[in-house]
């Protein structure tokens, strides 16, 4: 539900969807604030017309796609039935007090009748219809459309009667007075023709097109009549295609009041509110409520989508609209009247809202940028339900923001308090004698601006720039010299790349000031020949110089970045060396010391000969014969040529095994000879 106040008139949009960011922890509050007055109060695509039965119990709406009619029962606050149609509905009317007798005018010239059980009968009119009205005393239906004739269909006899011939080429709208049953038809030429159904003759003709053009009214094209509505016995409202509403007394041919919507859109709905003596007029953009006597605006409703039709619930402040949107809107205005009987709980609800006004839409959320998230250390929440992406930042709950802010900077409140005290003290010192002093923020910029002002005063330039002379005293730029957040970082990459350009622009400006001063001092002298070319040469040299300075700054920035990255890598290597190492002890091993582990790693890299000698020296290697016999291998390293290695060992008649071994210590290949084992004695 959305609450708006226009001209101090509260308007409750009961069909408004959720406007808060969809955050997981706030779904309970959203459900509590949501009001679904009637279930499934929508259409698949678009709703074209909506009406309420005379007994106030049923709401009927026509829409598309596919073309259909839906009936809602207000006693059950839900859908009663739905019927699909063959074509789209231009308009429809309820002939009975409930939904038992319905008439539909289709876009394909068909007129369809429905009874309580469903479809009853279908007939066709000669021309495409745009509107129709029902005359209750004679049971006649009057159809108007793309023709000069008004077709009459008698429902009692079940046949067409003689048509009424008008002077118009086409007729857009019609209505019948509920008191004396005068029939009125609005034409394409901007006229209103009034007919007496008893005599079947025209009794009056009003020229509304000429009367709609008043002083200060801009009209594009001929104002045609687009809407008609009678009020009591003598009142009538006429809406035009150019956005004007004319109020007439049937006893006069001149309008009592002309109200302009100032949108230039056709008026398609007109209603009267008898209790407050108001007129409700609507185009596709806005619904305006204004006083019938003086035209003073009472309030207005501007939905987010275009309006197709407006229906006012009789005797209440409830308004239904058919929109260019699947959802049909429901507005409740307590100033127009009480809530209908079937939703009387709305009065209590609005009273509670008046006592406890709700906060604005985004008061419970804080908008933060990605830089703010990095400062708070919440970048890991991006993509989670706690942050809702919006434009160039995110929405987060204000309670979470304050909690994280307090944890990130626990002394923020004390700093804020000291800053406020300092500001109060500075404000109290304003009345004292002020000395010329520099601000605490952006001192260099202030000095530069002061020097420029002094140069202009010294050179006595007639045409000074107001922006430069008043920027230090302008309240719009006061925060730039007071708030530390606006401090210019001269070591930043952006400043160092832009500073050469800005400095050159300042130098050019000073040269121009000097040149202007010289011209003012010697106005009668003629311009020296070739002066323009020298100025061009100077400007080109200046351009080359600042380009070179920018290149130098780029090189320096590149070198600084490389040095910083090298320093970071060096620090990472140092940290890696100082970082403790962890070793895994396998099952069955006994940990003695870290030196033992180092010796094991060293022995794994040693050769087989070194390991055997070490084991023999330590007494760990013991070879002995047994009773069943044993074999012993003797390893002897001997340098032999490649030819002898291929031929084999002579003492063993070439039956020994020769293995090529690469020694890392000598970085050379050696032959390892496995001699033929000697059989035991």
UniProtKB/TrEMBL annotation:
Residues 474-500 form the NUC153 domain. Belongs to the WD repeat NOL10/ENP2 family. InterPro entries: Beta-prop_NOL10_N, NOL10/Enp2, NOL10_2nd, NUC153, WD40/YVTN_repeat-like_dom_sf, WD40_repeat_dom_sf, WD40_rpt. Coiled coil: none annotated. The keyword Repeat applies. It comes from the Eukaryota. GO terms for cellular component: 90S preribosome; small-subunit processome. Residues 512-546 are annotated as: Disordered. It is found in: Nucleus, Nucleolus. This is Nucleolar protein 10. Residues 1-356 form the Nucleolar protein 10-like N-terminal domain. Keywords: Nucleus, Repeat, WD repeat. Residues 361-409 form the Nucleolar protein 10-like second domain. Residues 519-528 have a biased composition (Acidic residues). One of its GO terms (biological process) is maturation of SSU-rRNA from tricistronic rRNA transcript (SSU-rRNA, 5.8S rRNA, LSU-rRNA).
């Amino acid at each position: 539900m959305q609450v708006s106040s226009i001209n101090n008139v509260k308007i409750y949009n009961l069909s408004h969807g959720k406007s808060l960011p969809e955050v997981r922890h706030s779904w309970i509050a959203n459900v509590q604030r949501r009001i679904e007055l009637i279930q499934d109060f929508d259409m698949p695509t678009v709703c074209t017309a909506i009406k309420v039965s005379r007994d106030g119990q049923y709401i009927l709406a026509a829409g598309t796609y596919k073309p259909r009619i839906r009936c809602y029962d207000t006693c059950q606050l839900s859908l009663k039935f739905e019927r699909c149609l063959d074509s789209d509905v231009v308009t429809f009317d309820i002939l009975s007090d409930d939904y038992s007798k319905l008439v539909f005018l289709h876009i394909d010239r068909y007129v369809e009748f429905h009874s309580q059980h469903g479809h009853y009968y279908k007939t066709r009119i000669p021309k495409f219809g745009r509107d129709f009205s029902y005359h209750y005393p004679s049971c006649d239906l009057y159809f108007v459309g793309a023709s000069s004739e008004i077709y009459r269909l008698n429902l009692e006899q079940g046949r067409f009667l003689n048509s009424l011939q008008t002077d118009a080429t086409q007729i857009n709208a019609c209505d019948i007075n509920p008191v004396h049953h005068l029939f009125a038809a609005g034409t394409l030429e901007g006229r209103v023709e009034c007919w007496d159904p008893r005599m079947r003759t025209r009794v009056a003709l009003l020229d509304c097109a000429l009367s709609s053009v008043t002083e200060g009214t801009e009209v594009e094209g001929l104002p045609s009549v687009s809407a008609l509505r009678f009020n009591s016995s003598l009142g009538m409202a006429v809406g035009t295609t150019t956005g004007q509403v004319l109020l007439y007394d049937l006893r006069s041919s001149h309008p009592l009041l002309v109200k302009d919507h100032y949108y230039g859109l056709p008026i398609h709905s007109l209603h009267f509110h008898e209790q407050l003596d108001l007129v409700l007029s609507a185009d596709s953009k806005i619904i305006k409520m204004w006083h019938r006597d003086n035209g003073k605006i009472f309030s207005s409703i501007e939905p987010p989508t275009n309006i197709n039709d407006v229906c006012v619930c009789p005797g209440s402040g409830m308004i239904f609209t058919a929109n260019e949107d699947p959802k049909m809107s429901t507005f409740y205005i307590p100033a127009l009247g009480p809530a209908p009987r079937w939703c009387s709980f709305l009065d209590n609800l609005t009273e509670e809202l008046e006592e406890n006004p709700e906060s604005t839409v985004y008061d419970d959320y804080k908008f933060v940028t990605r830089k703010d998230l990095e400062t708070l250390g919440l970048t890991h929440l991006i993509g989670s339900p706690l942050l809702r992406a919006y434009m160039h930042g995110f929405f987060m709950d204000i309670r979470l923001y304050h909690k994280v802010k307090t944890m990130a900077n626990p002394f923020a409140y004390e700093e804020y308090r000291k800053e406020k005290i300092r500001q109060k003290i500075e404000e109290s010192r304003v009345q004292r004698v002020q000395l010329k002093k520099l601000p605490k923020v952006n001192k260099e910029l202030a000095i530069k601006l002061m020097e420029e002002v002094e140069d202009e005063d010294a050179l006595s330039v007639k045409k000074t720039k107001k922006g430069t002379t008043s920027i230090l005293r302008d309240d719009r730029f006061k925060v730039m010299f007071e708030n530390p957040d606006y401090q210019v970082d001269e070591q930043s990459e952006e400043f160092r790349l832009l500073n050469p350009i800005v400095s050159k622009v300042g130098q050019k400006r000073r040269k121009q000031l000097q040149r202007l001063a010289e011209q003012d001092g010697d106005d009668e002298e003629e311009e020296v020949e070739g002066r323009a070319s020298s100025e061009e040469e100077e400007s080109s040299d200046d351009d080359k110089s600042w380009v070179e300075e920018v290149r130098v700054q780029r090189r320096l920035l590149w070198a600084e970045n490389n040095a910083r990255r090298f320093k970071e890598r060096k620090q990472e290597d140092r940290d890696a060396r100082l970082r403790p190492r962890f070793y895994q002890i396998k099952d069955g091993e006994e940990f003695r010391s870290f030196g033992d582990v180092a010796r094991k790693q060293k022995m794994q890299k040693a050769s087989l000969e070194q390991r055997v000698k070490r084991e023999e020296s330590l007494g760990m290697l013991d070879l002995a014969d047994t009773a069943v016999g044993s074999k012993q291998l003797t390893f002897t390293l001997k340098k032999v040529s490649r030819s002898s290695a291929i031929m084999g060992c002579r003492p063993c008649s070439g039956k020994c095994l020769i293995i090529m071994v690469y020694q890392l210590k000598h970085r050379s290949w050696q032959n390892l000879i496995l001699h033929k084992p000697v059989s035991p004695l």
